[in-house]
Amino acid sequence: GAVVSQHPSWVICKSGTSVKIECRSLDFQATTMFWYRQFPKQSLMLMATSNEGSKATYEQGVEKDKFLINHASLTLSTLTVTSAHPEDSSFYICSARGTGVGNSPLHFGNGTRLTVT
Amino acid sequence: AQKITQTQPGMFVQEKEAVTLDCTYDTSDPSYGLFWYKQPSSGEMIFLIYQGSYDQQNATEGRYSLNFQKARKSANLVISASQLGDSAMYFCAMRGPSGNTPLVFGKGTRLSVIA
To answer: Average of pLDDT values for A86-107?
Structure first.
């Protein structure tokens, strides 16, 4: 089945630094990937839609200059949290839909737990 | 706009018993898809079951079945013969009419299976 790999699985960084999270579709091509954020004991909130070869589409309230998304190939999308602050600490998880869209589910990476100190 | 409502923050079930997790949805699109995912404490999102708005029969996948009542806009998940490993967060989600659109998630239900 479709596999999405996300790296790193966890990261601790100091306030003010930037962190890059990679999301790869291993056995299928994903023209579109989705980035979600999940705070403790809350649901998944869509941050942005990553489109291969074009600019990402951000949800309302998500700062595009802070959360940089690059989807340079059909199998890789990256999310860079720039100048991270403690309030950016969260669980970030990417997803992509396999072939045969329609009823095919979103396949998720295992997520990245970001802690900003 | 699409909306998913899960009204049960937490549920308990005895091992080997069946449990129903509630999900209601709201959409103005005639075509949509409904999904259930399981999220264990490790954080991964595990796809469980799918129901399309035009599907005539309720979806089933092993011990999981979806009680789809279109008129009531509900898509409850039924887990039969609960196992200790079923303890996790369960999210109901909806996709719009376009195949390549993101999922909108409910707030989730934490299921605890008791031995």
So the answer is: 82
